[in-house]
Amino acid sequence: MAEESFIQLAWNELPSSEMEERAAELFESMDCRRTTRHFSTKPVPKSLIEAAIKCGSTAPSGAHLQPWTFVAVSNPEVKAKMRAAAEEEERKTYSERMPDSWREVLEPLGTDAVKEHMTDAPWLIVLFRQSRRLRKNGEMGPTYYSTESCGIAAGMFIHAIHNMGLVTLTHTPSPMGFLRDILERPEHEHAMLVMPVGYPADNAMVPKLERKSLEEVAIFLE
Ligand code: IYR
Percentages helix, strand, coil for the chain, rounded to the nearest 5? Predict the structure, then answer.
């Protein structure tokens, strides 16, 4: 790559006490984040959704192709259409397609085929993964590590939503091909997550769950 396409990294070393403080504060904030299925219908300004998408889109990605499209829907008719289609699929999943091994881990979370959040939440953000891209020569070429890239972007989007005082839910209706049709996305875009965003309902509930301890999720070789 030509030398002139590089710039100096903007970075300042922090005092180590501040590093520790920031690390602890961020964990405390992130540990309070919960996924809820119960949303208020209270509107959320588009500017906040734009800001969260901009945060998500800062994610690192394979070859910096940023292989994602965030489709943000507040139109009530489109949301209703998406809910009807999702519930139709989910009814089949819950009644016929879901094996016992899956059912047993979902049972404590209390999920079912009814998806009120899709019409209650003021925004539905659908994250589409782009499996191909348009090359400069006009041909379609592959993207790289698009699943990993979109997973990271989703995580950063979710954190932005939490940090601004809103809630979201990572909903994976399955199969979710209907989203490409309803939202009129091209064939090389694949819906990955539906994230309703809004304020929690007054009586919003969350499952009583515990997170794995550091020892359970990490191994240090020193
Ligand atoms: N897609 C279904 C089932 C479901 C699957 C998992 I894994 C969850 O963590 C939660 C739900 C649904 O959305 O209900």
Answer: 45, 15, 40
Q: What is the pLDDT of residues 107-121, one digit of tens each?
A: 988 899 999 999 999
User: Can you tell me the mean pLDDT for 63-70?
Assistant: 98
- How far are the Cα atoms of 5, 56, 67, 68, 152 from residue 62, in angstroms, in the given order? 18, 15, 8, 11, 11
Domains and their CATH numbers in the chain: 35-198 (3.40.109.10)
The whole-number average pLDDT for the span 18-37 is: 98
Quote the ligand 1 centre to 143 CA distance (angstroms). 27
- Report CA(59)–ligand 1 centroid distance (Å): 25
Q: How far is the CA of 202 from the centre of ligand 1 (A)?
A: 23
Q: Which amino acid residue places its CA nearest to atom 11 of ligand 1?
A: 111
Neighbours of 200 (CB within 10 A): 18
Q: With a 6 A CB cut-off, is 117 part of the ligand 1 pocket?
A: no
pTM here is 0.96
**Nearest-5° angle of CA 210, CA 96, CA 150?**
50
Task: Give the residue, out of 92, 111, 117, with the most ligand 1 atoms within 8 A of its beta carbon, to mutate for a pocket test.
Answer: 111
